[in-house]
Design a protein that fits this description.
Layout (H helix, E strand, L loop, with lengths): L3 H19 L4 H30 L3 H27 L17 H29 L3 H26 L9 E4 L5 E2 L17 E4 L1
Antiparallel strand pairs: 1-2, 1-3
Helix pairs in contact: 2-3, 2-4, 3-5, 4-5
């Protein structure tokens, strides 16, 4: 028969092992975070280049939208990086793709396609895995990105539909979560719930 001290030692060892196991980095979520980190870095570069093309073609309003989205994607890139480190993972080296902008109409169509994929497929799948892994930092990072990409999709779709007749619009990007709006909220960001003064205007 095991003595009480022995039983307590076994319970303690099991608890320690359980803690150690829980502290193991969630491999699948880390892989997804690195994919998202690389993707957002590329989106930032791509939209920055698209902004310059729009400016050159005389679409100043669309150029401003691309700059706002680029700023948002840069925030998501850093959020994903921070989540990787928080979860004990290693940040992979970013591989930037070559960007060859087309016409502004083509670039908007490319942006619509990319944002639709992130909203409908990529981020929902990544978020589901992060929740299964109980990876709170990743859940937060993916949720912020998903909300912002949904907003970008609406903005890009409208910009493409009205190309050449785009109304003058302001863009504000939340510096905490990257959420993008055309008017400041009354009190707080609808995505991260931080105060309205955490938004920055993009010109």
């Amino acid at each position: 028969m095991k003595t009480l001290p022995t039983l307590l030692a076994i319970v303690g060892l099991c608890a320690f092992s359980s803690t150690m196991q829980a502290a193991e980095p969630p491999v699948n979520t880390i892989v997804n975070l690195n994919a998202a980190h690389n993707g957002e870095a590329n989106a930032n570069q791509r939209y920055s280049r698209f902004a310059k093309k729009a400016e050159a073609e005389g679409f100043a309003q669309v150029a401003k939208l691309f700059r706002a989205a680029a700023a948002s994607e840069a925030i998501h890139r850093e959020l994903h990086k921070a989540a990787i480190l928080t979860l004990g993972g290693k940040v992979d080296e970013v591989v930037l793709d070559e960007v060859n902008p087309g016409s502004t109409a083509e670039n908007l169509a490319t942006a619509v396609k990319g944002e639709a994929y992130e909203r409908d497929s990529m981020y929902p799948a990544f978020l589901k895995q992060a929740k299964a892994d109980h990876a709170k930092a990743a859940v937060r990072s993916f949720t912020y990105a998903l909300n912002a990409e949904a907003a970008h999709l609406k903005l890009y779709t409208g910009a493409l539909a009205n190309l050449g007749h785009n109304p003058t619009t302001d863009y504000f990007v939340n510096s905490i979560c990257g959420f993008t709006v055309t008017a400041l909220p009354a009190k707080e960001c609808p995505s991260c719930h931080n105060p309205r003064d955490t938004f920055i205007q993009i010109n």
